[in-house]
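Hi L.,

You mentioned the student needs an example of a multi-chain input paired with its predicted structure. This one should do, with 1005 residues in total across all chains.
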Amino acid sequence: MTGTAAHDPHDPSGRRIVVPGGARLAFTFDEARVEACEGETIAAALLAAGRQVLRTTERRDEPRGLFCNMGVCFECLVEVDGHANLRACQTVVRAGMRVRTQRGFGYRDAAAELGE
Amino acid sequence: MIRRKVVIVGAGPAGMSAALVLAQAGVRPTVLDENPRVGGQIFRQPPPGSPAAAAAPKDASARHGAELLRRFEAARARIELLNEAHVWGVFPERRLAIGNQGGWQVVQPEHLVLATGAYEYTPPFPGWTLPGVMTPGGAQSLVKTWNVRPGKSVVVAGTGPFLLVVARQLHAAGVEVEAVVELARRSEFLRHAPRLLSAPGLLFEGGSYLRELKAAGIPVLWGHVVFAAGGAEGRLQHVSLAPCDAEGTPDRARARTLETDTLAIGYGFVPRVELAQLAGCELVFQDELGGWIPRTDENGEASVSGVWVAGDGGGVSGSVVAELEGELAGLSIAGRLGLLDAATLAREKEQRLARLAPLRRFRAALDAVYRVRPGLARLAEPDTLVCRCEELAASEVDPAIGFGGHDFRTLKVMTRLGMGPCQARMCWPAMMRRIADRTQKSCADVGPSRFRPPVRPTTVGDLVQLIPFEDQADAPAGAGR
Amino acid sequence: MKHPDVLIVGGGVIGFAVAHELARRGLAVQLLDKDLPGRATSASAGGLWPVGEAVGLGCGVIYQATQAAARQATGELAAGEECHDGILPAPFRDLLVASNALFPALARELQESAGIDIEFRVGGGLIFAVYEPREQEYVDRVTQALPASCRLEQLTPEEAWKIEPLLTREIQGAALLSGEHQVNPMLLAEGFKRAALRQGAEFHHDTRVTALRRVGERIVGVEAEGEFFPAGTVVNAAGAWSGELARTAGLHCPVFPVRGQIVLTQALPRAMNACLSTSGCYIAQKLHGEVLIGSTTERVGFDVDVTPEGIAGLCKGAVRALPLVRYVHIKRVWAGLRPGTSDELPILGPAPGIQGYVNATGAFRTGIVAAPLTARLVAQSLLGEPTDQPIEPFLAARFGAPEPAPAA
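Structure written out for the whole complex:
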């Protein structure tokens, strides 16, 4: 059950408990391609891909990751398709989704994108 | 605006049980839940097709949850269920503002059941914001629901029997559990042993977890506290822990360090009372039940007539109690609606209350052992963030306490503590205790935080678009995305 | 403190400003307050828009629109008919402009004496967005009515977008009031409070004043929590509640609550240079990045509930003016009660024929910008000194005797 699957292309970080079958999809995180299982959250998919830092903070520029994993703490905020402040632990991945590390308040260059 | 007889917020054990009782009594309750699938935090279901469910160890609680979910599914035709529905506000007369599918709607029930559950309590300590530090429930959900290990190794710390559950599940998932660090001291069990025997089944379950951990070579360090976490390049690498006194103050001279990439740390749970507060329900402070809770009668009706509270949202007592409280609220509402005759109602209620009594005695004994201690309020050092959202260090907030910021509103104005998106859920339970500790006041005097709508993420654009309230009862849960 | 020189009723920005002013003049000051939900200070945008508010281009636009809609609904005003045009009398404008001019020095003073940064920041001014010809006509009228000393500049859409690039493409033009700025209203009140405390003023929180005590033609103190608090002079700074308070001594101070609902967004990177005002809402980005969307103007008594309709209306107005905010998360919404008056002017100074009593109320939409000078006028009036600005236009006497109560 706890098979070491570090070599498995579907589990590059070896974080999966069971190497999943089932439907897969791909999205990007900071331009890098990430594979995910259908129905899982951004946080779960990124952690499975070995990506632990989801945002950096506004005042101290410190990294933050998953904390409560139930939508309460707002620590896992990421930018999704140009929109800031999405909770990675509550947002389900979709194929082709563009996810980015949120820097501070986010919307660093979205003002141009959204304001046209 | 849409009117409904009964709306239940939250589809965990309390909400599901309330719905089942009401459906049985002949009223079609509306259940709103923010997750894609019912179950709540404790019985959270993995997405369809995920191997996570099969991999999770089956204990008595999991089996019981599966049975509850099966009963709920069987009654689905008699229950109106809206998944991914976010109740972000309660306006006067029990009008609920519900965000759903990028719009919103207002629904007014005759009876509102708040079964909103609880979240974990983690008071600040140096290093607690490093990625890799998370709550035990957060780590549990990763392995149980999402088929992902939080890390290669883990230290499970804090207080409460839940730590044992999580340690066992992480171990089973192939995570190296370095230790379970438990604030309570083993000797304290003996003192409360007679009361703990009021629920022998639950006591036995806890004992079997301990034996399993022992067999796996996982040390359980009683009377210890994690007082710092450290790392480099934004990753957790080690945690510092030490034996502590009865107040929870670590003896740093006897400290030691464990290497690990994950720390799962939590000191019990905090009831989610934001909707109750918005509904105008009176809150009272009950430390042993997790802090501020709505005042209710024995049936769960709050100080606002027609608003009912069931489960951990009304005081943290666990899923077995939550289920009974949900049934009790459901029965009482059915009685109020004239669907149960007085004799049946009295009999059914009596049955639940009789089962609740020993469970509550057991719970009270547990709470006495696994209590939050004042030493935890002093773990934050000057540079430790005490408000994660606004990134406020203790050294920025403590002076404001000295200047008279002894309540939520004043401290918020003076420092911005609690101004962030979590609406003080993370900072206030700990800051309230820190203020109490520094000013020699009681938490009841310091007071609760003040929630404002929206208490669930809502955009300006969401509010522009009113959506029709669709009856999704006959659609599969989460369909239509 | 027994028998202070002055007892102030009400712990909003005006009450604290007056306490600070009197305490620093060496008077023994006591302030009684019960923290009631819906204080106007906490529901203020903190916009310092002296000219904008005096000519109805600030929050007044929304008030006028609401009033007109109400009158049309009740048949008092035929559709299309012009209602009261929102340009308030020159003495009021002068009061606001002079009060506004005190802010830079005040900010320094409160920082030094109380350690509070009131977040006074000079920004890009106040821009009124013109969507319709009717609004352009109004701006033209305002331009003519203003003296040269007031900076109002009419802008083409292109000029407006240059200042505020995210402003909607929908505008026909704009008016810029470049002298208008912002503070944090809660910190302003806190700053006055702390400075006053340092000067020896005394505050009693959780002390709800239920009545003035009148002996003959003199107010001798107040009743609070079943106790008598004697004082040399009582200042009525009870905001939306001050009319009720005055009535307990048979005094006429016609203040009514005007509810304002407010929406505050999550913090954004700097997206706005100026404050924006439209007939649907006003929008200001505060120092820490949150965008404040205000504010309804509703006469619904002392009801401080937020309503779905109220906030939806504000959000619609904001999305129209600044399409970017559509995607921004809301941090919180709340409501406060402004102390409204029928002529939109404050009520300051003594009550006719009454000793030992001074009004400091009726600030309506302008309590924040007016607070520094209001405090001075009230202190000067109380001490019998000449006032910095004429106080006569603001005396309660202008309302004459109370109207007889309508038959039940």
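You could point out the following to them. Residues 256 and 340 of chain C are 5 Å apart (CA to CA). Confidence is low (pLDDT under 50) at residues 79-83 of chain C.

Best wishes,
N.
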